[in-house]
Specification:
The complex is a heterodimer of chains A (364) and B (127).
Chain A lengths: L3 E2 L3 H6 L3 E5 L2 E6 L3 H10 L2 E4 L4 E6 L3 H8 L11 E8 L5 E11 L2 E6 L4 H11 L6 E4 L4 E7 L3 H6 L14 E7 L2 E6 L8 E7 L2 H12 L6 E3 L1 H10 L35 H10 L3 E8 L10 E4 L2 E11 L6 E8 L8 E6 L2 E8 L7
Chain B lengths: L7 E2 L4 E6 L2 E6 L1 H7 L2 E5 L6 E2 L4 E7 L3 E5 L4 E6 L2 H4 L3 H4 L7 E5 L11 H11 L1
Antiparallel strand pairs in B: 1-2, 2-3, 3-9, 4-6, 5-8, 6-7, 8-9
Chain lengths: 364, 127
Protein backbone atom coordinates (compact mmCIF):
# COMPACT_ATOMS: atom_id res chain seq x y z
CA UNK A 1 0.00 0.00 0.00
CA UNK A 2 1.29 3.46 -0.94
CA UNK A 3 2.20 5.51 2.12
CA UNK A 4 -0.04 8.48 2.91
CA UNK A 5 1.01 12.11 2.95
CA UNK A 6 0.17 14.31 5.92
CA UNK A 7 -1.15 17.80 5.13
CA UNK A 8 2.38 19.05 5.94
CA UNK A 9 4.18 16.88 3.39
CA UNK A 10 5.04 19.80 1.07
CA UNK A 11 6.41 21.76 4.04
CA UNK A 12 8.74 18.89 4.95
CA UNK A 13 10.08 18.75 1.43
CA UNK A 14 10.55 22.54 1.33
CA UNK A 15 12.47 22.40 4.60
CA UNK A 16 14.78 19.70 3.27
CA UNK A 17 13.37 16.93 5.47
CA UNK A 18 14.66 13.41 4.85
CA UNK A 19 11.27 11.82 4.22
CA UNK A 20 10.74 8.10 4.89
CA UNK A 21 7.78 5.73 5.00
CA UNK A 22 6.91 5.38 8.70
CA UNK A 23 3.87 3.37 9.78
CA UNK A 24 2.30 3.97 6.37
CA UNK A 25 3.03 7.72 6.36
CA UNK A 26 5.61 9.81 4.55
CA UNK A 27 7.27 11.68 7.39
CA UNK A 28 10.68 13.29 7.93
CA UNK A 29 13.15 11.25 9.93
CA UNK A 30 15.16 14.46 10.30
CA UNK A 31 15.77 17.85 8.70
CA UNK A 32 19.07 19.31 9.89
CA UNK A 33 20.06 16.26 11.94
CA UNK A 34 18.83 14.11 14.79
CA UNK A 35 21.18 15.51 17.44
CA UNK A 36 20.65 19.26 16.87
CA UNK A 37 16.89 18.66 16.72
CA UNK A 38 17.01 16.61 19.93
CA UNK A 39 18.99 19.38 21.63
CA UNK A 40 16.60 22.07 20.41
CA UNK A 41 13.72 20.32 22.20
CA UNK A 42 15.68 19.70 25.42
CA UNK A 43 17.08 23.23 25.62
CA UNK A 44 14.82 25.50 23.58
CA UNK A 45 11.89 24.49 21.42
CA UNK A 46 11.07 22.17 18.52
CA UNK A 47 8.07 21.53 16.28
CA UNK A 48 6.83 18.10 15.16
CA UNK A 49 4.28 17.08 12.55
CA UNK A 50 2.17 14.46 14.31
CA UNK A 51 -0.72 14.48 11.86
CA UNK A 52 -0.23 10.75 11.37
CA UNK A 53 -1.61 10.06 14.85
CA UNK A 54 -5.09 8.52 14.89
CA UNK A 55 -8.12 10.21 16.43
CA UNK A 56 -11.26 8.29 17.35
CA UNK A 57 -14.29 9.90 18.98
CA UNK A 58 -16.70 8.07 21.27
CA UNK A 59 -19.92 9.93 21.99
CA UNK A 60 -23.28 9.10 23.50
CA UNK A 61 -25.15 8.36 26.69
CA UNK A 62 -22.86 5.46 27.69
CA UNK A 63 -19.59 6.99 26.48
CA UNK A 64 -18.04 7.25 29.95
CA UNK A 65 -18.96 3.71 30.99
CA UNK A 66 -17.79 2.32 27.64
CA UNK A 67 -14.42 4.09 27.63
CA UNK A 68 -13.88 3.06 31.27
CA UNK A 69 -14.60 -0.56 30.25
CA UNK A 70 -12.05 -0.37 27.40
CA UNK A 71 -9.24 1.25 29.37
CA UNK A 72 -6.94 0.11 32.17
CA UNK A 73 -6.77 3.58 33.75
CA UNK A 74 -9.68 4.92 35.83
CA UNK A 75 -11.65 7.04 33.40
CA UNK A 76 -14.38 7.71 36.00
CA UNK A 77 -11.96 10.01 37.86
CA UNK A 78 -11.29 12.18 34.82
CA UNK A 79 -13.05 15.55 34.64
CA UNK A 80 -14.10 17.61 31.61
CA UNK A 81 -11.13 18.97 29.64
CA UNK A 82 -8.74 16.60 31.38
CA UNK A 83 -6.57 13.99 29.67
CA UNK A 84 -5.22 10.64 30.82
CA UNK A 85 -2.61 8.28 29.49
CA UNK A 86 -3.89 4.72 29.45
CA UNK A 87 -3.63 1.28 27.92
CA UNK A 88 -6.35 -0.52 26.06
CA UNK A 89 -5.86 -4.23 26.66
CA UNK A 90 -7.11 -7.51 25.23
CA UNK A 91 -8.66 -10.13 27.56
CA UNK A 92 -5.23 -11.84 27.87
CA UNK A 93 -3.67 -8.62 29.23
CA UNK A 94 -1.71 -7.89 26.06
CA UNK A 95 -1.86 -4.30 24.88
CA UNK A 96 -4.08 -3.37 21.93
CA UNK A 97 -2.68 0.16 22.09
CA UNK A 98 -1.46 2.87 24.44
CA UNK A 99 -3.23 6.17 24.03
CA UNK A 100 -4.40 9.48 25.40
CA UNK A 101 -8.06 9.84 26.37
CA UNK A 102 -9.37 13.41 26.22
CA UNK A 103 -12.60 13.91 28.15
CA UNK A 104 -14.45 16.72 26.40
CA UNK A 105 -17.67 15.96 28.30
CA UNK A 106 -19.18 12.97 30.12
CA UNK A 107 -20.73 11.88 26.82
CA UNK A 108 -17.92 13.00 24.53
CA UNK A 109 -14.45 11.41 24.49
CA UNK A 110 -11.58 11.95 22.06
CA UNK A 111 -8.96 9.22 21.78
CA UNK A 112 -5.50 9.86 20.35
CA UNK A 113 -3.92 6.58 19.24
CA UNK A 114 -0.79 5.34 17.50
CA UNK A 115 -0.77 5.84 13.74
CA UNK A 116 0.14 2.24 13.02
CA UNK A 117 -2.70 0.99 15.24
CA UNK A 118 -5.51 3.32 14.22
CA UNK A 119 -7.44 0.90 12.00
CA UNK A 120 -6.91 -1.99 14.41
CA UNK A 121 -8.07 0.15 17.35
CA UNK A 122 -11.17 1.38 15.55
CA UNK A 123 -12.13 -2.19 14.68
CA UNK A 124 -11.40 -3.38 18.22
CA UNK A 125 -13.41 -0.62 19.88
CA UNK A 126 -16.33 -1.19 17.51
CA UNK A 127 -16.31 -4.92 18.27
CA UNK A 128 -16.57 -4.24 22.04
CA UNK A 129 -19.58 -1.91 21.69
CA UNK A 130 -22.22 -4.54 22.57
CA UNK A 131 -25.19 -2.85 24.23
CA UNK A 132 -23.37 0.37 25.08
CA UNK A 133 -25.23 3.34 23.64
CA UNK A 134 -22.31 5.05 21.88
CA UNK A 135 -21.30 6.32 18.48
CA UNK A 136 -17.71 5.56 17.47
CA UNK A 137 -16.11 7.52 14.64
CA UNK A 138 -12.59 7.37 13.24
CA UNK A 139 -11.89 11.02 12.38
CA UNK A 140 -8.16 10.57 11.77
CA UNK A 141 -8.27 11.66 8.13
CA UNK A 142 -9.80 15.02 9.02
CA UNK A 143 -7.35 16.02 11.77
CA UNK A 144 -4.01 17.79 11.34
CA UNK A 145 -1.79 17.92 14.41
CA UNK A 146 1.49 19.48 15.46
CA UNK A 147 3.42 19.19 18.73
CA UNK A 148 5.43 22.16 19.98
CA UNK A 149 7.82 20.90 22.63
CA UNK A 150 10.58 22.29 24.82
CA UNK A 151 11.13 24.74 27.68
CA UNK A 152 10.35 27.70 25.38
CA UNK A 153 7.23 26.13 23.81
CA UNK A 154 4.77 28.24 25.80
CA UNK A 155 6.65 31.47 25.11
CA UNK A 156 6.48 30.82 21.36
CA UNK A 157 2.88 29.60 21.18
CA UNK A 158 1.67 32.47 23.40
CA UNK A 159 2.75 34.96 20.71
CA UNK A 160 0.05 33.54 18.43
CA UNK A 161 -2.95 33.51 20.75
CA UNK A 162 -4.91 35.64 23.19
CA UNK A 163 -5.82 32.58 25.26
CA UNK A 164 -3.66 32.61 28.40
CA UNK A 165 -1.75 29.34 28.03
CA UNK A 166 -1.20 29.23 31.80
CA UNK A 167 -4.85 28.20 31.99
CA UNK A 168 -4.01 25.00 30.10
CA UNK A 169 -2.26 23.04 32.83
CA UNK A 170 -0.44 19.70 32.46
CA UNK A 171 -2.69 17.08 30.86
CA UNK A 172 -5.61 19.44 30.35
CA UNK A 173 -7.01 20.93 27.16
CA UNK A 174 -8.86 23.87 25.71
CA UNK A 175 -11.12 23.00 22.76
CA UNK A 176 -11.21 26.46 21.24
CA UNK A 177 -7.93 28.27 21.03
CA UNK A 178 -7.42 30.79 18.24
CA UNK A 179 -3.89 30.31 16.91
CA UNK A 180 -3.32 33.34 14.70
CA UNK A 181 -6.75 32.98 13.12
CA UNK A 182 -7.03 29.19 13.08
CA UNK A 183 -9.34 27.49 15.57
CA UNK A 184 -7.52 24.66 17.34
CA UNK A 185 -7.83 22.29 20.25
CA UNK A 186 -4.74 22.69 22.43
CA UNK A 187 -3.54 20.36 25.18
CA UNK A 188 -0.47 20.52 27.40
CA UNK A 189 0.80 17.10 26.46
CA UNK A 190 3.68 15.60 24.50
CA UNK A 191 6.06 12.74 23.98
CA UNK A 192 9.44 14.26 24.78
CA UNK A 193 9.67 14.67 28.56
CA UNK A 194 9.64 18.47 28.10
CA UNK A 195 6.90 21.03 28.60
CA UNK A 196 4.86 21.66 25.49
CA UNK A 197 1.58 21.50 23.66
CA UNK A 198 -0.20 19.40 21.11
CA UNK A 199 -2.31 21.40 18.70
CA UNK A 200 -5.19 19.78 16.79
CA UNK A 201 -6.97 21.37 13.88
CA UNK A 202 -8.15 20.70 10.34
CA UNK A 203 -5.92 19.48 7.51
CA UNK A 204 -6.21 22.93 5.91
CA UNK A 205 -5.59 24.84 9.13
CA UNK A 206 -2.54 22.89 10.21
CA UNK A 207 -0.35 24.19 7.38
CA UNK A 208 -0.84 27.77 8.52
CA UNK A 209 -0.35 26.80 12.17
CA UNK A 210 2.91 24.98 11.32
CA UNK A 211 4.33 27.91 9.39
CA UNK A 212 3.13 30.51 11.90
CA UNK A 213 4.76 28.64 14.79
CA UNK A 214 8.07 28.27 12.94
CA UNK A 215 7.99 32.01 12.15
CA UNK A 216 7.00 33.02 15.70
CA UNK A 217 9.75 30.84 17.18
CA UNK A 218 12.64 32.17 15.09
CA UNK A 219 13.94 34.35 17.88
CA UNK A 220 13.89 31.38 20.30
CA UNK A 221 15.77 29.18 17.83
CA UNK A 222 12.88 26.85 17.06
CA UNK A 223 13.70 23.87 14.81
CA UNK A 224 11.39 21.60 12.84
CA UNK A 225 11.99 18.13 14.29
CA UNK A 226 11.78 14.68 12.73
CA UNK A 227 10.84 11.23 13.91
CA UNK A 228 14.48 10.41 14.72
CA UNK A 229 14.67 12.72 17.72
CA UNK A 230 11.04 12.02 18.65
CA UNK A 231 12.22 8.51 19.50
CA UNK A 232 15.43 9.48 21.35
CA UNK A 233 13.54 12.13 23.35
CA UNK A 234 10.72 9.83 24.42
CA UNK A 235 13.21 7.07 25.21
CA UNK A 236 15.35 9.27 27.49
CA UNK A 237 12.19 10.41 29.26
CA UNK A 238 11.16 6.76 29.94
CA UNK A 239 8.06 7.08 27.77
CA UNK A 240 7.15 3.73 26.22
CA UNK A 241 6.65 3.05 22.52
CA UNK A 242 4.07 0.52 21.43
CA UNK A 243 5.69 -2.62 20.04
CA UNK A 244 8.82 -2.01 22.12
CA UNK A 245 8.22 -1.44 25.84
CA UNK A 246 4.70 -2.96 25.65
CA UNK A 247 2.78 -4.74 22.92
CA UNK A 248 0.22 -7.45 22.29
CA UNK A 249 2.67 -9.84 23.97
CA UNK A 250 4.25 -7.50 26.56
CA UNK A 251 1.73 -6.49 29.22
CA UNK A 252 1.73 -3.01 30.77
CA UNK A 253 2.65 -4.60 34.11
CA UNK A 254 5.74 -6.22 32.60
CA UNK A 255 6.55 -2.84 31.10
CA UNK A 256 6.49 -1.36 34.60
CA UNK A 257 3.47 0.85 33.97
CA UNK A 258 1.23 -0.34 36.81
CA UNK A 259 0.42 3.25 37.69
CA UNK A 260 -1.75 3.37 34.56
CA UNK A 261 -3.44 0.03 35.28
CA UNK A 262 -6.03 0.52 38.02
CA UNK A 263 -6.65 -3.06 39.06
CA UNK A 264 -8.85 -1.83 41.92
CA UNK A 265 -11.02 0.62 39.97
CA UNK A 266 -14.77 0.34 40.56
CA UNK A 267 -15.76 -0.92 37.12
CA UNK A 268 -14.67 -4.01 35.26
CA UNK A 269 -12.36 -3.52 32.28
CA UNK A 270 -11.10 -5.70 29.46
CA UNK A 271 -7.99 -7.59 30.54
CA UNK A 272 -8.56 -7.03 34.26
CA UNK A 273 -8.72 -10.70 35.18
CA UNK A 274 -5.56 -11.66 33.28
CA UNK A 275 -3.61 -8.64 34.57
CA UNK A 276 -4.76 -9.26 38.13
CA UNK A 277 -3.61 -12.85 37.88
CA UNK A 278 -0.26 -11.83 36.41
CA UNK A 279 0.26 -9.33 39.23
CA UNK A 280 -0.80 -11.69 42.01
CA UNK A 281 1.34 -14.55 40.76
CA UNK A 282 4.33 -12.27 40.26
CA UNK A 283 5.92 -11.09 37.02
CA UNK A 284 8.27 -13.54 35.33
CA UNK A 285 9.93 -10.77 33.35
CA UNK A 286 10.12 -7.01 33.67
CA UNK A 287 11.42 -3.97 31.92
CA UNK A 288 14.66 -2.57 33.33
CA UNK A 289 17.06 0.17 32.34
CA UNK A 290 20.70 -0.55 31.67
CA UNK A 291 23.91 1.25 30.88
CA UNK A 292 26.77 -0.21 28.86
CA UNK A 293 30.01 -0.83 30.75
CA UNK A 294 31.86 -2.17 27.72
CA UNK A 295 32.09 -0.37 24.39
CA UNK A 296 29.10 -0.54 22.09
CA UNK A 297 25.64 0.84 21.45
CA UNK A 298 22.73 -1.41 22.38
CA UNK A 299 20.03 -1.68 19.73
CA UNK A 300 16.45 -2.90 19.70
CA UNK A 301 16.24 -6.69 19.49
CA UNK A 302 19.75 -7.46 20.75
CA UNK A 303 19.77 -10.55 22.93
CA UNK A 304 20.69 -10.24 26.61
CA UNK A 305 22.56 -13.01 28.42
CA UNK A 306 23.72 -13.83 31.92
CA UNK A 307 26.43 -16.48 32.27
CA UNK A 308 25.79 -17.56 28.70
CA UNK A 309 22.05 -18.03 29.22
CA UNK A 310 19.52 -15.91 27.30
CA UNK A 311 17.49 -13.83 29.78
CA UNK A 312 15.74 -11.35 27.48
CA UNK A 313 16.19 -8.67 24.84
CA UNK A 314 16.73 -4.96 24.30
CA UNK A 315 13.45 -3.08 23.63
CA UNK A 316 15.06 0.28 22.81
CA UNK A 317 18.70 1.35 22.93
CA UNK A 318 20.70 4.42 21.97
CA UNK A 319 23.70 6.54 22.47
CA UNK A 320 21.67 9.04 24.49
CA UNK A 321 22.15 12.48 22.93
CA UNK A 322 21.46 14.22 26.24
CA UNK A 323 23.45 11.98 28.58
CA UNK A 324 26.14 10.96 26.06
CA UNK A 325 25.90 7.43 27.42
CA UNK A 326 25.02 4.13 25.78
CA UNK A 327 21.81 3.10 27.50
CA UNK A 328 18.76 0.97 26.85
CA UNK A 329 15.62 -0.72 28.09
CA UNK A 330 15.75 -4.45 28.63
CA UNK A 331 12.87 -6.87 28.98
CA UNK A 332 14.47 -9.56 31.13
CA UNK A 333 13.69 -12.27 33.66
CA UNK A 334 12.66 -10.54 36.91
CA UNK A 335 15.49 -12.09 38.96
CA UNK A 336 18.06 -10.03 37.00
CA UNK A 337 16.34 -6.65 37.28
CA UNK A 338 17.87 -5.54 40.56
CA UNK A 339 19.88 -2.32 40.20
CA UNK A 340 23.57 -2.96 39.74
CA UNK A 341 23.19 -6.46 38.29
CA UNK A 342 25.70 -7.10 35.50
CA UNK A 343 24.42 -8.62 32.27
CA UNK A 344 25.83 -9.19 28.77
CA UNK A 345 24.33 -7.43 25.77
CA UNK A 346 25.02 -9.46 22.63
CA UNK A 347 26.38 -6.91 20.17
CA UNK A 348 27.15 -8.47 16.79
CA UNK A 349 27.30 -11.88 18.50
CA UNK A 350 29.80 -10.75 21.12
CA UNK A 351 28.90 -10.31 24.81
CA UNK A 352 29.46 -6.76 26.03
CA UNK A 353 29.05 -5.91 29.74
CA UNK A 354 26.23 -3.71 30.94
CA UNK A 355 24.68 -3.00 34.32
CA UNK A 356 21.09 -2.54 35.35
CA UNK A 357 20.23 1.06 36.27
CA UNK A 358 17.01 2.98 36.90
CA UNK A 359 14.81 3.42 33.82
CA UNK A 360 14.43 7.07 34.75
CA UNK A 361 17.44 8.05 32.68
CA UNK A 362 16.70 11.77 32.87
CA UNK A 363 16.27 12.69 36.48
CA UNK A 364 15.66 16.39 36.54
CA UNK B 1 28.84 13.71 -2.79
CA UNK B 2 32.60 13.96 -2.82
CA UNK B 3 34.46 11.21 -4.69
CA UNK B 4 38.23 11.27 -4.24
CA UNK B 5 40.19 10.55 -7.40
CA UNK B 6 42.72 7.73 -7.55
CA UNK B 7 40.99 5.44 -5.06
CA UNK B 8 39.23 2.11 -5.59
CA UNK B 9 35.59 1.85 -4.53
CA UNK B 10 33.04 -0.87 -3.65
CA UNK B 11 29.25 -1.00 -4.19
CA UNK B 12 28.92 -0.68 -0.40
CA UNK B 13 30.76 2.66 -0.43
CA UNK B 14 34.11 1.63 1.00
CA UNK B 15 37.34 2.96 -0.53
CA UNK B 16 40.84 1.49 -0.86
CA UNK B 17 44.11 3.29 -1.45
CA UNK B 18 47.17 1.27 -2.31
CA UNK B 19 50.39 2.21 -0.48
CA UNK B 20 53.00 -0.29 -1.64
CA UNK B 21 51.73 -3.69 -0.51
CA UNK B 22 49.39 -2.18 2.04
CA UNK B 23 45.75 -1.31 1.37
CA UNK B 24 44.40 1.66 3.30
CA UNK B 25 40.63 1.30 3.80
CA UNK B 26 37.89 3.76 4.71
CA UNK B 27 34.29 4.74 3.96
CA UNK B 28 33.21 7.03 1.14
CA UNK B 29 31.55 10.40 1.61
CA UNK B 30 28.21 8.92 0.49
CA UNK B 31 28.26 6.40 3.37
CA UNK B 32 29.01 8.95 6.10
CA UNK B 33 26.31 11.18 4.67
CA UNK B 34 23.72 8.40 4.72
CA UNK B 35 24.53 7.57 8.33
CA UNK B 36 24.44 11.12 9.65
CA UNK B 37 26.26 12.07 12.85
CA UNK B 38 28.56 9.15 13.63
CA UNK B 39 28.83 8.44 17.35
CA UNK B 40 30.54 5.07 17.49
CA UNK B 41 33.16 3.17 15.52
CA UNK B 42 34.20 -0.41 16.20
CA UNK B 43 37.47 -1.56 14.64
CA UNK B 44 39.13 -5.00 14.34
CA UNK B 45 42.30 -6.04 16.20
CA UNK B 46 45.75 -5.82 14.67
CA UNK B 47 46.72 -9.17 13.08
CA UNK B 48 43.08 -10.11 12.44
CA UNK B 49 42.84 -11.86 9.09
CA UNK B 50 39.64 -10.91 7.34
CA UNK B 51 38.25 -12.08 4.02
CA UNK B 52 36.92 -9.80 1.31
CA UNK B 53 33.22 -8.91 1.89
CA UNK B 54 33.33 -9.87 5.57
CA UNK B 55 32.35 -7.13 8.03
CA UNK B 56 35.46 -5.62 9.64
CA UNK B 57 33.87 -2.69 11.39
CA UNK B 58 30.59 -1.28 12.63
CA UNK B 59 29.90 2.41 12.30
CA UNK B 60 26.91 3.83 14.17
CA UNK B 61 24.93 7.03 14.22
CA UNK B 62 22.42 7.77 16.98
CA UNK B 63 19.75 6.26 14.78
CA UNK B 64 21.37 3.19 13.24
CA UNK B 65 24.29 0.80 12.99
CA UNK B 66 25.97 -0.10 9.70
CA UNK B 67 28.47 -2.84 8.99
CA UNK B 68 31.51 -1.93 6.93
CA UNK B 69 32.86 -4.68 4.69
CA UNK B 70 36.37 -5.62 3.57
CA UNK B 71 36.92 -4.44 0.01
CA UNK B 72 39.89 -6.87 -0.21
CA UNK B 73 41.16 -9.79 1.87
CA UNK B 74 44.11 -9.30 4.16
CA UNK B 75 45.74 -9.06 7.57
CA UNK B 76 45.14 -5.93 9.63
CA UNK B 77 48.43 -4.12 10.27
CA UNK B 78 47.10 -0.82 11.61
CA UNK B 79 43.87 0.68 12.92
CA UNK B 80 43.05 4.36 13.18
CA UNK B 81 42.58 4.68 16.94
CA UNK B 82 41.66 8.34 16.68
CA UNK B 83 38.27 7.23 15.33
CA UNK B 84 37.49 5.38 18.54
CA UNK B 85 37.86 8.55 20.60
CA UNK B 86 36.37 10.86 17.98
CA UNK B 87 34.00 9.00 15.62
CA UNK B 88 32.81 12.30 14.11
CA UNK B 89 36.12 12.45 12.20
CA UNK B 90 34.45 10.16 9.67
CA UNK B 91 31.83 12.86 9.04
CA UNK B 92 34.41 15.62 8.90
CA UNK B 93 36.63 13.98 6.25
CA UNK B 94 36.01 10.34 5.36
CA UNK B 95 38.95 10.24 2.91
CA UNK B 96 41.56 11.78 5.20
CA UNK B 97 40.39 9.66 8.16
CA UNK B 98 41.12 6.10 7.10
CA UNK B 99 39.89 3.17 9.19
CA UNK B 100 42.34 0.30 8.83
CA UNK B 101 45.44 -0.74 6.89
CA UNK B 102 45.79 -4.31 5.69
CA UNK B 103 48.44 -6.43 4.08
CA UNK B 104 46.66 -7.79 1.05
CA UNK B 105 46.66 -11.53 0.46
CA UNK B 106 45.48 -11.27 -3.14
CA UNK B 107 46.31 -8.12 -5.06
CA UNK B 108 44.14 -9.22 -8.00
CA UNK B 109 41.10 -8.40 -5.85
CA UNK B 110 41.77 -4.71 -6.46
CA UNK B 111 40.81 -5.18 -10.11
CA UNK B 112 37.32 -6.21 -9.04
CA UNK B 113 36.70 -2.77 -7.51
CA UNK B 114 35.49 0.40 -9.24
CA UNK B 115 37.74 3.28 -10.24
CA UNK B 116 36.70 6.72 -8.99
CA UNK B 117 35.20 7.45 -12.43
CA UNK B 118 33.18 4.23 -12.37
CA UNK B 119 32.09 4.92 -8.80
CA UNK B 120 30.86 8.39 -9.76
CA UNK B 121 28.68 6.81 -12.44
CA UNK B 122 27.48 4.20 -9.94
CA UNK B 123 26.47 6.96 -7.50
CA UNK B 124 24.61 8.84 -10.21
CA UNK B 125 22.56 5.71 -10.88
CA UNK B 126 21.91 5.15 -7.15
CA UNK B 127 20.39 8.61 -6.73
Amino acid sequence: MEAKKTPLYDEHVKLGGKVVDYAGWYLPIQYEGLVPEHEAVRNKVGLFDVSHMGEITIKGKDALAFVDYLMTNDISKVVDNQIVYTFMCAPDGGVVDDLLVYRLAHDDFYLVVNASNTDKDYKWITEQKGNFDVEIVNISDTVGEVAIQGPLAQKVLQKLTNTDLNTITFFTLNRKVDINGVECMVSRTGYTGEDGFEVYTTNEGVVKVWNDILEAGKEEGIKPCGLGCRDTLRFEASLPLYGHEMSDVISPLEGGFKYFVKLDKASDFIGKEALNKQWTEGLKRKLAGFEMIGRGIPREGYEIQKDGKVIGHVTTGYMSPTLKKNIGNALIATEYTELGTEVDIMIRNKPVKAKIISKKFLSK
Amino acid sequence: MKVQKGLHYTNDHEWVKLEGDVAVIGVADYAQHQLGDIVYVELPEIDDEIEKEEAFSAVESVKAAADIYMPVSGKVVAINEELIDDPALLNADPYENWMIKVEMTNKAELDELMTSEEYEKFLAEEE
